[in-house]
Amino acid sequence: MIDTHCHVLKEEMNNYIDIIKECDSKDISMIINGYDNKSNKEVIELANKYSNVYSAIGLNYDGIDNFTYKDLEDLEELIKSNKIVAIGEIGLDYYWTKDNKDKQIYFFKKQLELSEKYNLPVIIHARESIQDTYDILKNYKVKGTMHCYSGSLEMAKEFIKLGFKIGIDGPITYKNNVKGVSVVEGIPIESILLETDSPYLSPEPNRGLQNSPLNLIYIAEKIADIKGISTEEVISKTTENAKELFNI
Ligand code: NI
Q1: Could you read off the pLDDT of 64-99 as tens digits, one per residue?
Q2: Percent of the chain with pLDDT over 90
């Protein structure tokens, strides 16, 4: 199995090294996502050290108020000089604030340009910003994944038409997630990627606890249940999807 989106990093979890090693012993790989150049460098170090770790690097909305053009230049240097599988986590988040919307959009577009330039897929964060995200993405020749997708089935189909996969994580296991279930029901398994967003969003039965890629199985089981196929099929198809998209 491949966890296509997690933050198994020192700043995020005390036991991150143990988690990486335990995942390796259980044949679980992970794409660790950075969000600023400090975490991006850490991701690259971990990927160089552990064979089950792949790196995605990017500048995400959380740090946006402090980012300068220099951060973009440094990001490009990291992309050029290291083996990475994607640019991410990047995107727009209007849930916390819309005040810095213009700056969010500027950094988002600049990183989509890098994606085109270096022919790398993107891992997209979109919270309460689905329409803007779509309107921007459609102008670029990029492929990637809509991480922790929370939009409608209709929009999911539009993203798939652009060449995107839909990332499904812990919340699919939560009671009453009618919208999430309708998305999984309505899109083909070829368009689904498994992810945890660890240490956040732990699936049932571990909801509320620290999440880790070891919980990926609960998400695969829930998708199998919704689609009426075996968990093995979900695992093998989504692993293929991830390998193809991220060139692993
Ligand atoms: Ni994330």
Answers
A1: 999 999 999 999 999 998 989 999 999 999 999 999
A2: 98
| 176 CA to centre of ligand 1 in angstroms | 23
> How far does the centroid of ligand 1 lie from the alpha carbon of residue 168, in Å?
12
- Gap between the Cα atoms of 51 and 55, Å rounded: 11
CA dist 154 to 130, 158, 164, Å? 12, 7, 14
Q: Which secondary structure element, helix H or strand E, spans residue 69, and what is its range?
A: helix 69-81
| Gap from CA of 197 to ligand 1 centroid (Å) | 5
Helix, strand, coil tally for the chain in percent (to 5): 50, 15, 35
Distance from the CA of 44 to the center of ligand 1, in angstroms?
16
34 three-state secondary structure: coil
Strand segments, DSSP code E, in 41-158 are 53-57, 86-93, 122-127, 144-146
CATH code, 202: 3.20.20.140
Predicted structure pTM score: 0.97
Tell how far the Cα of 101 is from the centroid of ligand 1, in angstroms.
19
What is the crossing angle of helices 130-137 and 153-161, to 10°?
A: 10
- pLDDT (mean) for 222-236: 98
How many structural domains comprise the chain? 1
* Phi, psi (rounded to 5 degrees) for 73: -65, -45
Distance, CA 224 to ligand 1 centroid (Å)?
24
**Domain range spanning residue 202?**
2-246
